[in-house]
Amino acid sequence: MVLWFTENTVWRLMIKEVTELQALAQSGLAYCADEFDIKRYQRILEISAVLLALKSEHSYKDIIEWIESDTGYCTPKVDTRGAIFKQEQILLVQEKSNGLWSLPGGWADVNLSPSENIIKEIREETGLHCTVSKLVGVFDKRKNNPEEIKWPHVYKLFFLCEIKSSQKDPFDYNEISDFCFFDLTQIPPLSIGRTNRQQIELCFKHLKNPGLTAEFD
Q1: What is the DSSP string of 135-187?
Q2: What is the pLDDT of residues 112-155, one digit of tens each?
């Protein structure tokens, strides 16, 4: 029997295995002492980079450098996103890298808790001073933002936030072109790897029903 797959189907089936290969190799390099096993794990890491480069706009050289920069036991990275509302409109920022829009946020920094991190990100990207009111949800990016494949594995944390004062700082023009409040019916084109429509709708849902428990995968 011959099985036929489209290219996209094959890649969807393969990405989980490629991710596991990279994780096994990285963790193996973190704990292995035998020089021959070290070479084997390094080769597995290189093979995973080759496979990823097949469906990426980045070169193998860029990818292997990216992968090798993350050492130790392989674990997901954390991305925090904050939803701020004003008169039932949600605040979105325009990413300078692609002109698309997303909830403010970004990678979690060391020495900051998740809520401290999103407060910092919002201040940097919009100049606004906020407080965090509740956790909306924790999601696996691979399951919820499949349109954009990134490396490595990411957990995304979404919070409801509130503007706490009229104080406003200059925002970071290096990453953000603009920011604006939008009705749910007028959401602009989104930077899907950062924020998708379903995640924005979920934030609206928790705004209207603050007693809802946080959602998760």
Answers
A1: EEEEEEHHHH-TTS--SS-EEEEEEEEEEEEEEEPPP-TTTEEEEEEE-GGGP
A2: 999 999 999 999 999 999 999 999 999 999 888 866 555 568 99
The domain that holds 141 is classified in CATH as 3.90.79.10
Q: Please name the residues in contact with 48: beta carbons below 8 A apart, sequence gap of 6 or more.
A: 18, 21, 22, 25, 67
Which pTM does this prediction carry?
A: 0.82
Q: Are 112 and 120 within 8 A, CB to CB?
A: yes
The pair of three-digit structure tokens given for residue 6, joined into one six-digit string: 């489209």
**Cis amide prior to 170 (ω within 30 degrees):** no
Q: Which range of residues forms the domain containing residue 211?
A: 77-216
Same structural domain, 117 and 63: no
Measure the CA–CA gap between 207 and 217, rounded to whole angstroms: 20
Summarised one tens digit per residue, pLDDT across range 60-94 is 999 899 888 888 999 999 999 999 999 999 999 99
What is d(CA 78, CA 155) in angstroms, rounded to the nearest whole number? 5
Comparing CA positions, the residue from 150, 140, 146, 134 lying closest to residue 217 is 140
Neighbours of 206 (CB within 10 A): 22
One domain, residues 151 and 88:
yes
